[in-house]
Design goal:
Number of helices: 5
Order of helices and strands: HHHEEEEEHHEEEEEEEE
Strand content: 25-35%
Number of strands: 13
Distance between the termini: 53 Å
Radius of gyration: 19 Å
Helix content: 10-25%
Number of domains: 2
Strand order of the largest sheet: 6-7-8-9-10-11-12
Shape: globular
Length: about 260
């Protein structure tokens, strides 16, 4: 803990409570060290949220799927990109909905949709599936998801950090349709972004409550999320019901993060 002692001594030099200083130094290391480890590749196996086989969906089935994949460049050390894919009964392909930030600079809506490639690589990174609902249950929920997509308030607005970004969009869908039981990973930076009028709101899964100041500082508690602390958009989560933790940069350690319903009785 040489790093912690160095921080404490440095702050003590300008005065202050030793207990308080140690507490904030510990919290700082709790968030920063996982990022350093993640960037080194030492825990690369943990960086993939939950790679599962993307089983094909029958043509006559409805389906709702939500994916996350590490983003591009240096951002991938910290963050994932998330999107929503929908399929109505009889559709041959999924329709994929996501946020493309570059569209803002062409005076276009950043919320786009396109058919096919719903589980394609994202800048060479394999996506992990977070929600996979099929059959009758999907058919019951799909209109609610489409309405939530239509109601998304930042269709023409994009800011990498703290939001609104791609993860803000997916989190909005989760809050509007709590039946999805969406638990976004700690690496979904921007998921906690809300306007000041919504400083207290539903948690992303809709199963709890969240306090958030523009996605920069906050905390949440819910059945799906467990307990979560947000510091400058970086999240530490203790999933007490699934016996897992989530760390900034690294992501989830423990039980898989996956909501599946194949529609069968």
């Amino acid at each position: 803990m040489a790093g912690l002692r160095f921080i404490v001594r440095g702050i003590e030099a300008v005065g202050g409570s030793t207990v308080l200083i140690k507490f904030f130094a510990f919290i700082g290391l709790l968030f920063v060290l996982p990022i350093i480890v993640s960037s080194s590749g030492a825990l690369q196996a943990s960086n993939d949220i939950n790679n599962v086989g993307h089983n094909p969906v029958a043509e006559d089935d409805a389906a709702i799927q939500i994916y996350a994949a590490r983003t591009w460049g240096l951002k991938k050390i910290l963050a994932v990109h998330t999107w929503v894919a929908l399929k109505h009964p009889g559709d041959v392909e999924f329709t994929r909905y996501e946020i493309f930030g570059w569209a803002k600079y062409h005076n276009e809506e950043v919320l786009i949709s396109h058919q096919g490639d719903h589980d394609a690589l994202w800048y060479g990174n394999t996506p992990a599936i977070l929600v996979d609902i099929r059959g009758q249950h999907a058919q019951q929920l799909i209109s609610d998801v489409e309405q939530a997509i239509e109601d998304y308030p930042y269709r023409s607005d994009y800011t990498v950090w703290p939001g609104p970004n791609s993860n803000t969009f997916t989190a909005f869908i989760g809050r509007q349709v709590p039946e999805l039981k969406l638990d976004l990973p700690s690496t979904a930076i921007g998921k906690d972004y809300v306007e000041i009028k919504d400083v207290v709101s539903r948690s992303v899964s809709g199963s709890g409550i969240q306090f958030s100041l523009w996605g920069l500082f906050g905390a949440s508690a819910g059945i799906e999320e467990g307990l979560e602390i947000n510091l400058l958009g970086l999240n530490f989560e203790l999933d007490i019901f699934d016996l897992a933790i989530e760390l900034p940069g690294i992501g989830r350690i423990g039980a898989p993060q996956f909501e599946h319903d194949d529609g069968e009785a």
